[in-house]
Amino acid sequence: MGSSPESRAVGQPAGGGRNRSRPPTLREVASAAQLDISTVSRALRPETRDRVKPETVKRVLATAEALGYRANPFARGLKVQRSMTIGMLVPDLGNPLFPPIVRGIEDGLRDRGYAMILGNTDQDLGREENLLDVFLQRRVDGLVLATALRSYPLLQNLVDGGVPVVLVNRTTDEAPMSMVAGDDHQGVGLAVRHLADLGHQRIAFVGAALSASTGFNRYHYFRAWMHALGLEVDEELIVFAPWFTKDAGAEATKELVGRGRPFTAIVAASDMIALGCYRGLRAHGLHVPDDVSVVGYNGSRWCDEFDPPLTSIHVPKYQIGRETARLLLNMLDTADTSPASVLLPTSLQVRASTRQV
Amino acid sequence: MGSSPESRAVGQPAGGGRNRSRPPTLREVASAAQLDISTVSRALRPETRDRVKPETVKRVLATAEALGYRANPFARGLKVQRSMTIGMLVPDLGNPLFPPIVRGIEDGLRDRGYAMILGNTDQDLGREENLLDVFLQRRVDGLVLATALRSYPLLQNLVDGGVPVVLVNRTTDEAPMSMVAGDDHQGVGLAVRHLADLGHQRIAFVGAALSASTGFNRYHYFRAWMHALGLEVDEELIVFAPWFTKDAGAEATKELVGRGRPFTAIVAASDMIALGCYRGLRAHGLHVPDDVSVVGYNGSRWCDEFDPPLTSIHVPKYQIGRETARLLLNMLDTADTSPASVLLPTSLQVRASTRQV
DNA sequence: TTGAAAGCGCTAACAC
DNA sequence: GTGTTAGCGCTTTCAA
C-alpha cells in the first residue's frame, strides 16, 4: 500500500461487448401492431392522438412500450426542422456566477422537451464566433448569451437570421434584444443606501471591467445613487480593476488607498472584487469593518465564510435562469421575436463587513 | 453570379446575415456549382475529399462558403446514426465540484465535434432514470455519469445496451465500468500523513454520505492509513454526516465533541464538511487550529478565504474532466467498451487550519 | 473522377 | 379512422 505520484490505471476484466442493436423503428412497431406506420405515428403523438380510435391507440402504446420504441430525433428533426435544442454561451462555467443560472435555464427548458448545449468563450471573441457557428450548424432553436461584452456586432446578424436570442446579465448597445438580469440599479441603490444609513459619507467605488455591461452599469448607478442620496462623488475615490478578479481588485484598492483621500466605505463591483478590497486594505494595515466597511455584489454562496463575512447584494441567479427559459420558450412558441427585458430584484444581505461609522 | 434553376432566396448577403427560413442544402450548393450532389458531399467531407479532383474540391468549397452552407445534422444523423452528442448527469451543477469537471469534459469533447447535454438529478433516482431516458431517446453517443450513488442497477442495462459510459467520481459495485476520479486513497493518505507529520496522534474523522462512493472510500482509506502509519483508530472519533453539507458537518462535529474523547485533529470528508467542523468546534469554544487542526477535501477555490484558510486535499477537477473526455472519445473511436479506470493524483494544500500539535 | 439512385425514420397531405 | 405516399437533406453503394 502506498501512494503513487503518477496517475494509476486500474485495469479491470474486460466485460461485455457492444451489442447496440438498432433501436426499433416506427415501421417495426407498425408491423408488430398490424397497423400502418402513419397510424402508429398519429397514435404516438399526443397532438394527433385524437384522430385515432382509442383502442387502436392503446394497442399502439402497448406494442411501442413492449418494443422499447423511441422516436428517432433525427428523422423527426429532418421533417419538422426543429432540434429541440438551445445553445448557451458563457464566459466560463468555472465562474460561480453561472452554474446557478445554467441550472435555472435547464430546469425551465427540460419540462418542455428542450435540451441545452453549452459553450465557454473565455472572453475570446474568436472562440465565441466559432461556438456560435457550431450552434447554428447544429440548428439550435434558440440561443442564450451570457457573455458579457457590451459591443458585439454579430448579435445583429443573429437577430436578422431569425434565431430567438435572450441575453443574460448583459445589455447591448447595438440592437434591442430580449434580456434578463438582476436589477443593478436597484441593487447598487441597496448598497449605497445601506452604507449611507450606517452614517458613511465618504464612500469609494472599486469597479471592474467597464467593457462588460455589468461593470459599466454598476459604475454609473453608483454615481447616480450617490447624487440621489445627496452624497458627494469624489472622483479620487473611484478606481477600476480590469477584471472581476481578486488580484485585480487588490491592485485597484491599493491604488485607491495610495491616493490618500479619506474614505470609510467601499462599494465593490462584485464579491471577488470585494475580496480583493479585503486584501488591498489589509496590505495598508486597514481593518474591515473597523476602518473601512465593504459591500460586495452577487451574494455568492461563500460570503458567510469569508473573513469577515461579506455584506453583499444578492442576485437571484437561479431565478434569472428560470426567467430566461420562460422568455425563450415564449419566443419559441409564438415565433414572436420582439424583445422583452426582465430585471429581477436583488436583496441586501447584511453580514459583518459593514458597520456604523 | 450565375443564375441557378433552383430558386434561391434573393438578397441574402453571402456569409453575412443568413436567413434562417431556409438554410442552403447540399442540392443547392450542387446546382450552384454545376455538379452532382454526391460529388459535393464527397468534396465537403475531409475523409472522402481525396476522391475528388482538387480543382473540383476548390470550386465546391468556394460555392459552399459563398452560400453559407452548413451540413444538416439531422440528415447526416439519420444516415450515419450518430448524434455527435454525449449526455452527462450530475447531482447538481450548483455544487462547486462539478462545473470544473463539466468544463474539462466540454473542452475535451469540443475539438472532436462533440457537444454535451447536461442533466441535474438532485440525487433523485426517478429523475435520473427519466433523464437517462431523454438522453437515450436523443441517441446520445455516450454517457458521463457523475451521480454518486454506489448502487444502481440501471447501469448494467446501459452497458448491455452498448452505450459507452464513463463514471466520474464514482465507482459501482454492480458492473465493471470505466471511471475517472481523484485518487482518494492517495489523497486521504496525504491528509493523514500531514497531520501525523505535525505530531497529531488522536485524529478524528468526520465523514459523510456513506452511500456515495467518495464518502465510502474516504472513510475506509482513512482507517487504512491510520493503521499504516501506526496510529490508533478510535471508533469514538469517527462520525458521519448524512450529506456533504455544512449543517450536516456541524451536527456531526458537535456529536463528536460531545463524546468527550480527546482529539487534536480532524480529517473531513469534504471542504463543506470542514466548514461544518469549524462551526461545530466553535460552538464548543474550540479554536482552529490552536485546539484542533482540520484538513478538508477537494481544494475548492475559496479555501484561501475561509476563516482560517483551510488546509485541503486538492482534487484536479478540470483534469478529471479532460481525462473523462479522453476515455469516452477512445471508446467512441474504437468501439471498444472494455472498462478502463483512471485515478488522478491529488495534492496537499497547506493553509492555516493545521498546525504542529 | 463523377453521376444516379436507394434509402436512413419520420411527418403530413391526401386518399379511401 | 386508417392507409398511401412524397419528401425532409444527407451518405453511400453501384455504374459510367
List keywords for this structure.
homodimer; 357 residues; 434 Repressor (Amino-terminal Domain); Rossmann fold; 12 helices; 13 strands; 41% helix; 17% strand; elongated; disordered N terminus; DNA-binding
Give the CATH topology of the largest domain in chain A.
Rossmann fold
The CATH top-level class label of the largest domain in chain A? Alpha Beta
The main β sheet of chain A shows up as:
6 strands, parallel
Q: What value does the Rg of chain A take, in angstroms? A: 27 Å
Number of domains of chain A: 3
Beta fraction of chain A: 15-25%
Mean pLDDT across residues of chain A:
89
List how many beta strands of chain A DSSP finds: 13
Oligomer kind: homodimer
Helical proportion of chain A, percent range: 40-55%
Q: Give the full name of the CATH homologous superfamily of the largest domain in chain A.
A: Response regulator
Instruction: Identify the biggest protein-protein contact and residues per side.
Output: A-B, 68 and 75 residues
Distance between the termini of chain A: 59 Å
| Class by alpha and beta content of chain A | alpha/beta
Total count of helical runs of at least 4 residues of chain A: 12
Low-confidence stretches of chain A: 1-19
Give the overall shape of chain A, derived from the CA principal axes: elongated
Order of the strands making up the biggest sheet of chain A: 3-2-4-5-6-12
Order of helices and strands of chain A: EHHHHEHEHEHEEHEHEHEHEEHEE
